[in-house]
Amino acid sequence: MAEEPQNIVPAYEDEDEYRLEPTLPPAPPAWKDGSTRVGIHTSIAGDIAGALDIAHGLGANALQIFSSSPRMWSRDRDSSRIQAADATRFRERREALGLGPLVIHDNYLINLGSPDRVLRARSVQAFHGELVRALALGADFLVAHPGACCGSSMQDAISAIADGLRQAARGLKLDGLRILLENTAGQGSSVGSRFEELRAILDLCGDLPMGVCVDTAHIFAAGHDIRTAEGLERALQHVETTIGLANVYVIHTNDSKTPLASRVDRHDHIGKGQIGLEAFGRILNHPLLAGRAFILETPIDKPGDDRRNVAALWKLLGKEVPKQRRGRDGFAIRHRVKGRAARRTGRAHPSERPRKAARAKAAARRAALKSRRRGN
Ligand SMILES: [Zn+2]
Ligand SMILES: [Zn+2]
Question: Does the pTM exceed 0.90?
Answer without folding.
Answer: no
